[in-house]
Amino acid sequence: MSQTRKKNSSDGETKPRTSFVNKFLRGSEFMSSKAENRKESNDLETTDFHPSNAAQETATLDMAQPLASEVELGSRLEKNEPFLRKLGTTAVDRCLDLNNCRLTAADVREAVALLPLLPDLEKLDISWNDSVGGNLHLVTQQMHLVSKLKILRLGSCRLTMDDVRALGEALEVIPDLEELNLSWNSEVGGNLPLTLQKFQEGSKIQTLELVDCDLTSEDGAFVGQLLPMMQNLEVLDLSINRNIGASLNSIAQGLKSTSNLKVLKLHSCGLSQESVRLLDATFRYLCELKKLDLSCNRELGGGFEDSSAQLVTLERLEVLDLHQCSLTADDVASLTQVIPLLASLQELDLSANKRMGCSSEHLLSRLRFLPTLKSLLINSCALETETFTALAEASTYLPTLEILDLSWNKCVGGNLKLLLEALKFLASLRVLRLSSCALVTEDVALLASVIHTGHLAKLQTLDLSYNDSICDAGWAVFCQNVWFLKELTELDISLRPSASRDCGQWFRHLLCAVAKLSEITEIGMKRWILPTSQEEELEHFHQDHRRSIHFDLGEFQ
């Protein structure tokens, strides 16, 4: 980030002068090459330096000459340079991201020493650092110095009960907090009131994430009481807290006061059939909701039979995740009346609901009324030929579809031709997964012909793994045509764990194809056995092309 200040000269011209502090904040003086390479992956928000009013008296960047305070501040910052270099990260005036930096207790103390130097800090992320646990009080004691903090992430820090208590006290001095992430800290469970007791009505919190915190039913009830105070809440994630299903009545009542909520995640929360009824009564209050995740609640099955009508009021819903919910035939019949009316829906996950296989024909047929659908996951649903046929026909009306997963549906084998006709209309398809679909040689030969004609030109990921019935001739035809997928990055043709097999002559065709695919990085070939001659071919391939392509041959090679 280039940051410069300008001063007025006697002749009216302006000349740029880069201050020492700004050099530090943009990382030009102290950033290691490793940190520069990780700039994008760390997603650091680099913004212009704007000192707060309180800091201006001691750290003002005078336009005429550097002040002693700047030199002193620069000296203090320079002392922290080895610490930041060691972590391969940086600090800017508004963001300090130490996520997954393997901090030690000593590192935590050094990080705390940075806080007085960053009065305008808005984002502090020290997630995935075990040593934060038991030492959080060092951070919270300095929290008043970063009172402008808006984002605080403490996920997977092994927080102790004392940490939880200290955090609860500190939240009072950061009234502008908009995001709080305490996920994967089991001590939060049973102690949630200690942490969030300082939240007052009119709280600015927009995102609250408490994933896998071992929350109790009492914690769930407390969340329900707290929600009316968080009217700015947009994201609530309580996933993997299996005991809060018992207090969903309180949570559902509280949700009626969160009209700005856009994301609600209750994945694996011990929800029951009664939970569906409680949530259904809440949906009409959540008119801004865009993402709803109720997945992995196996006791939910049967709950949609009489309680799905209000789903249709979620006019802005873009993502609906109901995978592994033990949906029954009656659930599917009820959802058939609702899901096709969700005109904004872009992602639908119904996977791992094996009892819907024989009863989803009408639902899948009516997916044609979702013209903006981009992702459809229906793997492991025990589809039958009739339901697969209905899906294939509906797919021709889904021009924006980018992700399609039909894995572990055996009816696809021998019937792929039904889907291939639809694939000709799916110009946007990027991911196609057909793992363990009992595909036969004829299926991959037909797939090869579709690829050859250019109908899957945008495909990036193709999963054909665990289809052991395809003979060498089928793989040969496929490998001779796969190079037409110019944007392909991942290909998986692995055999199932119980099988192993010698590679045929098609392997040479595969190497020739890969040589023409400039984007490919990963090829799954687990349990395929390469004879010595083919091992040598692969070695020569790597030597000749010097590209980072990983051939995953598993334990056999």
TrEMBL record:
Origin: domain of life: Eukaryota
Region (Disordered): 1-25
Pfam families: LRR_6 (PF13516)
SUPFAM superfamilies named among the record's database cross-references: RNI-like (SSF52047)
Protein name in UniProt: Leucine rich repeat containing 31
Organism, as annotated: Ailuropoda melanoleuca (Giant panda)
Gene: LRRC31
